[in-house]
Amino acid sequence: MQESPISARSSRTDSSKETNPHYSLTSLYNGPLRYAVVDVEIGLSDQRIHDIGALRYDRAIFHKASKENLLPFLDHVEYLCGHNIIHHDAKYLFEDRQIPWRLVDTLYISPLLFPERPYHRLVKDDKLVSDQMNNPVNDCEKARDLLFDEMSRWNSWPEHKRRLFTTLLRGQQEFDGFLDLMGAGPKNCDLHEQIATVYRGRICQNADLKTLIEHYPCELAYALALIDTTNPRSITPGWVLHNYPGVEFVIKKLRHTPCLAGCAYCKSQLDVQRSLKSLFGYDAFRTYEGEPLQERAAQAAVEGRSLLAIFPTGGGKSLTFQLPALMAGLSVHGLTVVISPLQSLMKDQVDNLSERGFTEAVTINGMMDPITRALAIEKVQDGTAALLYISPEMLRSATIERILLTRNVVRFVIDEAHCFSSWGQDFRVDYLYIGHFISKYQQKKGSKLPIPVSCFTATAKQKVIQDIRDYFKQTLDLNLELFASKATRTNLTYSVLHVDNDEEKYLRLRELIANSQCPAIVYVSRTRRTKELAMRLTNDGFRALPFNGKMETDEKISNQEAFMNNQVRIIVATSAFGMGVDKSDVGLVVHYDISDSLENYVQEAGRAGRDPHMNAQCYVLYGDNDLDKHFILLNQTKLSIGEIQQVWKAVKELTRQRMRVYSSALEIARQAGWDGSGSDIETRVRTALASLEQAGYIERGNNVPHVYATGITVRNLDEARRRLTASPLFDSKDTEQAVRIIKSLISKKYIAKAQGSEAESRIDYLADILGMSKREVISAVERMRQEGILADSKDLSAYLLGTGNSERKSQQLLEYFCQLERYLLLRIPEDGLYISCKQLNEDAIQNGIATSKEKDIRTLLYFLTVKGYLRKQEDADHNLQLRRQTDLQSTEARFNKRAEICRFAIGWLYRQADELMRTLAQRNFIGQEHIAANNAVQFSIVELLNQFKADNRSKLFGQNDLQLSEVEEALLYLSRIGTIKLEGGFLVLYNAMDIRRIKDNKSRYKVDDYRLLNAFYKQKIQQVHIVGEYANLMVRDYNAALQFVQDYFQMDYRRFISKYFRGERIEEIQRNVTPKKYEQLFGVLSPRQMEIISDKESRCIVVAAGPGSGKTRVLVHKLASLLLLEDVKHEQLLMLTFSRAAATEFKQRLMALIGNAAHFVDIKTFHSYCFDLLGRIGNLEDSQDIVARAAKMIEQGEVEPNKIGKTVLVIDEAQDMAADEYALVTALMARNEEMRVIAVGDDDQNIYEFRGSDSGYMFSLAQRPEARFIEMTDNFRSARHPVTFANEFVQLIPKRMKHTPIQSMRNEDGWVSVTHHTSEIMYQPLVDELRRHRHAGTSCILTQTNEEAVILTGLLRKEGVPCKLIQSMDGFRFCNLSEIRYFLRYLDKRVTTPMIPDELWEEAKYATSKTYARSRNMDLVKRCFEQFEHLNQTKYISDFNEFVFESSMEDFCDVSGSEVMVSTIHKAKGREFDDVHMLLTDNYAKNAELMRRYYVGITRAKNRLFIHTNGHCFDRLTADCHDYDDRNYTLPGEIVLQLSHRDVYLEFFKGIKREVLALQSGDPLQYRDFTLYTEKTDLPVAKLSARMQKALTDWFSKGYLVKSATVSFIVAWKAKDAPKEEPETAVLLADLTLAR
Question: What does the pLDDT look like over 20-61, one tens digit per residue?
Fold first, then answer.
């Protein structure tokens, strides 16, 4: 090979180098130069030398791992060369020994000699480009070639330039060796003069070169090298900026700091006027009322000042930061980072710049596809980009941080800067991270000067401006210079048109559009309305298109372009439209719904009249109820303190074992008890986390998946390609992707020599730079590990339940889920299944999986969907549409294989855990394969696959049949079902967040921590009131309204409020409702009632509400207050009652108060709620202990958090709680530590002790810490005398909670009469008195037994008094009624979806009415249908089943008529009547329960109370009349006996079901010998029980005979102990009329 000697003074061009690539070096005076090139391979983990390669001047090669053997090889060598030899190779080779050679480092000199883009072909960043692994000799050849090129480039420089750089670099160890090698002399020139001369016109003539030369010589050299480049996209490598952070400072001083004298360079390059013309073609900046604010702000940015600019919409704010950014890109090759909350706006700005010919702007966001994202990242890395647009959340990305560290970031621009302020119209907590990020970034860069910041917003009041400036002063010590426009748009005319209703509003809109021929924007507040209104306008001949943020991207773009291109002149949009859209000829903007703040209104109206020479019209169509819509929307979207507390609780739960976790937003939401189906769920979780971070509870790291592609085992790319092509695991596409990964990794082979080495091989980084998805990279890496192309890496951590019995528990859990999964797969027919999850769970339990839970089914369905077993769709009400993706046989085979892998994996992992524990116990675990990380077993998928293959059970389906993806699927399955907790590896597919808990588990998120968000929401409320005030002013006084707006933006906010909202109005604008709505909601309440409504702080409020005190009203209005004024969302509010009737009444009254929003509030009975918790449908068999079971499951953490994650629990009739209900309440309180409880009841009215009720539980609630006890003793129901009588009577009841007497709030006296009888029978005198005193009001007779009520009903009817008996089917449920059963059967046979179609519902009603046309019960049944329809907008079969299951006969009794109601006291509880007549026989023990029952009866009377008794309880009480009747009365001549289930022989009905079902309520029957027969066919249809036969015999002995019999009810029945498969039978319950 020909050799070409080079002398230090000779000159060689690159082209001569290329013809003679290998040559020897000749020293200047002494012949051939003695040099060697060395490269050392260092192990990443042990930091020891693994291999050494060296090349010597005489072509000798060294390749051994021994540094001792290297020393003789270097004998006679004068120059020891290498790439990063000084700070890397030499450190490992020679440690602290003196080095006898002169070290020549090719790394540090390379950017000086090759600063131009494209850079040197052998260098990428700080590494040599290599195509081989583990071959240091090959790398020595590369380093030698680079050295030769560097020498050639140095020699090609002119003498003055070599002298200049020599003088700068002499004395620096990184450069001295190279300078010696090149024969460069000592420092021998006047640097100041030389630089000023050579770089005249390219740097500021007045720069302080003396200081720079003295303090920053190396930095100055790198800066000058960059200045020498002709390509503005050339950049200083990131590693140089890291090692020499002063480079950015120096180049800024030279090229981007305008001098006061105005030198030639500064005038030409840093003059904003010239740059405006040269870059954008504009002759002048925009002015605002003659003020050149835009120019001043742009100049301030060029001069490096931080600023806050407030320019109106369309005021050119984008250009104000784009121009300085492009100038900085040209002058210092810098990058400007623009942070904006709107992805669409970012894209629009990049596209607009692109249309102008600027390709220097890019955006990177989470919605981009991998390839587009990779190209954008590449543009930032290689210097193409001068402007980078990102969202605040992207600052959490490790990739973003990494690429920013490689660039000279000259400025951070924050758009929509009002988001910093809680007083702004759109406060975002994630904005508060920006300052922290910039501070951290500057620290990592070692910046000499703070990076300036520019903030922009279109509208901001004084307090917002101050907040923004204070924020940057506190976080970054920056003083923001203010550039605020006070200009108003003189070409806009504003009008507000008042409308009375929606129809008038539409007609006015149509009129405005018809009278305008220019493009128009119609703004609405809801996304749905955009389409509805656009369609209606189009149908009326005004073609319009919709636009909203939730539309598909293609449709949005298409509609926007159609409007921009004048294909359509009307666009109906939400506020999402217009951001960044610049259409100059919009002449009409109509706010169909008023904006929620003046700031937004001004911005949106400002879309009109962008052409300053045209006049535009801005209208608001304003109705009285428009503000209410904004308040409702605000309440739905705001993040309450309770929700943040729930997220904090979720974080504490997730970090219970480890302080640091990686969790997705959805996981946190579910753990917090949120419904994970909301579209904005991720945003809400991130906002909550940002608030927690801001308050110091957590610390969020970068969103980094901990998976690395390391340990390359192939020597070069060719070998990798050969092995990949031969592998059955890779097809052609897979091979190409794997080759790209290997190529990237090999090119970064010098990983140990770089800072941030892990980042190079991190999965997400590889995905970002290669334009691949994380899933693709992970899949390729795992298969390359399987093939041995990459070394296996234990990047999975398994956290097990523990050791010992836990393995058995894990296996049992697995088998349970396998059983449940098998059931699910078999349950889905070929044509799919449409069903609710609750019904699926109920079916599973009925099919023998007794422990099935709804949450487990959801877990399985999620997994099966993700892995492609099923296709799952969920409707708005969470009903599921399921369809298998493959045939059943294939599905079962895949399921069986996975189950087998899972069984093995559990056993193997627990064995590894046992071994790990033994190792740890021995305190000798260094070098073990499985290390402990918080008791985690670390392993890899490949390792588990190989272990399984080695196990005998793999023969079940052949070793070669097992794929890596199947092992991965099994591990994912185990993780999902909770048998093990996995982190790392393939589990980075979701966007996991790195969260570290800082505060301890006992800390609670407090009100003070919520201060910023709370201030923001209070501001939002005030802004809605203020915009309403503006609208009202515009209707009355145009000029006053304009002054109002001007004052809003320019006055101090507190002064503005005091000027326009005085006295009571200050309180008005704090509320989340309009004054009119507030009066409607709360104007009718008493002071004590308002006291309860207004209490928003007490953790537990227990209200002892006396009779007539408005308990129901208080609860309904409290529910309204919670929803409208107290930040409680409907899904976080739970109200529990003891009867379906009470739940129905509350729902109906709440609907009347707040409208359809009431439909979404959970108002349930205890039983219904507990069935829901267990994922069950209400049924008689499980109802007895359902509450106790639910309480226990909550305590044990077995209920999904989103089902119990409530912030407020409201309990009605709290005195009726029994042990089970109280256990449920306390369990809910324990699981929701911040939950508020409001319990209302009256201990004096606890009349259900016979079923376990005890008002002591209500008392216990009142005794809890932080509880508040309130007595409600104002009676609005009863007149004075009945109240006095009740007060005296209640003193007879012991252990009462209330101490304050009840006080009547009425002016009338009323009447109380007590008649004392000596007769045991008192029916006739009671009826006689009722007839004497009866008037137009409502009347009721109350008895203690059903029998008494029935007898009185018969007597009243005989006397001609219209009456109605509040009936019950003692022992049978309403759902067992034959009419209801017929209706349900009709639906079940025809319904194919969880939802009942309206046509089918009506059809079933008609069929039932027709079939049971003669039934006396149809009135009850029809009222049942009506109530259900009223409560349920959408009718579901499961909801109706529960509705009728929980209902009682008396729930549907109509008590509104003029008839006298007859009832037992128990059934009358909660009702009220003008007159109450009580029949109280003295046959019972005088205990507290009886006294409370009497008290309930007494307090039903509104005006008059008549008591007939033969006891002495009332002798000493104050009454208007005490009468004594010593007459003896007999039973009525005719009485009616209502038979219950105890009165008939139930077994008798088993064989006569058909005959019984042929009858209907009201049909006549024949009675003979204790048996009932059909009247026409004389068939026996009922037999009286022995108990009833005895009772009837007693009646016979009194002279009574059975006069007639009629069917009362036909009900379904089955014995409790009957086999499951035994069918129900039909039981007939009759009325027997007896006569003497």
Answer: 334 445 444 345 789 999 999 887 667 888 889 999 999 999
Say if residue 1392's pLDDT is above 70: yes
CA angle 153, 121, 406 (to 5 degrees): 100
Q: Both tokens of residue 690?
A: 């940002």
Rounded to 5 degrees, what angle do the CA atoms 541, 547, 548 make?
145
> What span, in angstroms and rounded, lies between the C-alpha atoms of 785 and 793?
8
Tell which phi-psi region holds residue 747, choosing left (phi > 0), alpha (psi between -120 and 50) or beta: alpha
Report whether pLDDT(867) > 80: yes
Q: Sort strands 1571-1574 and 1580-1583 into parallel, antiparallel or unpaired.
A: antiparallel
E strand or H helix at 378: helix 370-381
Q: How far apart are CA 1154 and CA 540, in angstroms?
A: 33
pLDDT over 90 percentage in the chain:
48
For the record, the structure tokens of 1348 come out as: 């008494």
HEC letters along 755-777: CCHHHHHEHHHHHHHHCCCHHHH
Contacts of 1542 (CB under 8 A, 6+ apart): 1370, 1371, 1585, 1587, 1588
Q: Which of 415, 425, 336, 427 is nearest to 580 (CA)?
A: 415
| pLDDT the model gives residue 678 | 57
Over residues 1173-1184, the pLDDT tens digits come to: 888 877 666 677
Please, which residues have CB within 8 angstroms of residue 1504's CB and are 6 or more apart in sequence?
1282, 1310, 1311, 1312, 1313, 1333, 1474, 1475, 1476
Strands lying side by side in the sheet with 870-874:
833-836, 879-884, 870-874
Rounded Cα distance between 1484 and 1497, Å, is 16
Q: Which residues pair with 1100 in a beta bridge?
A: 1237, 1267
Residue 621's DSSP bridge partners are 497
Q: Residue 316: which region, alpha, beta or left (left: phi > 0; alpha: psi -120 to 50)?
A: left
- Chain-centroid distance, C-alpha 612: 44
- State both tokens at 997: 């808990």
Q: Which of 332, 675, 569, 308 lies closest to 460, judged by CA?
A: 308
pLDDT (tens digit, 9 = 90+) per residue, 555-572? 887 898 899 889 999 999
Q: Which tokens belong to 1168?
A: 């219904």
**How far is the C-alpha of 1370 from the C-alpha of 1442, rounded, in Å?**
19
More confident residue, 272 or 703: 272
- Spatial neighbors of 168 by CB under 8 A, at least 6 apart, are 191, 213, 217, 218, 220, 221
The continuous run of DSSP H or E covering 428 comes out as none
Residue 174 C-alpha from the chain's centroid? 53
The residue type of 1598 is K
Q: What string of DSSP letters covers 273-336?
A: HHHIIIII--SS---BTTB-HHHHHHHHHHTT--EEEE--TTS-HHHHHHHHHHHHHHHH--EE
Residue 648's alpha-carbon distances to 636, 669, 675, 1233, in angstroms, are 20, 11, 16, 11
Calculate mean pLDDT across residues 469-482: 94
C-alpha distance from residue 1279 to each of 161, 1315, 1456, 1474, 1515 (Å): 109, 20, 21, 10, 21
In which element (H, E) is residue 20 found? none
Given a cut of 70, whether residue 956 has pLDDT beyond it is: no
CA proximity to 1036, closest of 498, 664, 1403? 498
For residues 397-435, one letter each, b for 16 or more C-beta atoms within 10 angstroms of the residue's C-beta and e for the rest, the string is: bbbbbbbbbbbbbbbbbbbbbbbbbbbbbbbbbbbbbbb
Cα separations in angstroms, 1151 against 1129, 1159, 1163: 16, 7, 12
Distance CA 860, CA 858 (A): 5
Question: Is residue 1532 within a helix (H) or strand (E), and if so which, with residue range?
Answer: none
Query: What is the torsion angle, in degrees rounded to the nearest 10, for the CA atoms of residue 427, residue 433, residue 438 and residue 440?
Result: 170
Angle made by CA atoms 1056, 1059, 1062, in degrees to the nearest 5: 120
| Residue 560, CA atoms < 13 Å, CB-side half-sphere | 21
Q: What is the pLDDT of residue 3?
A: 35
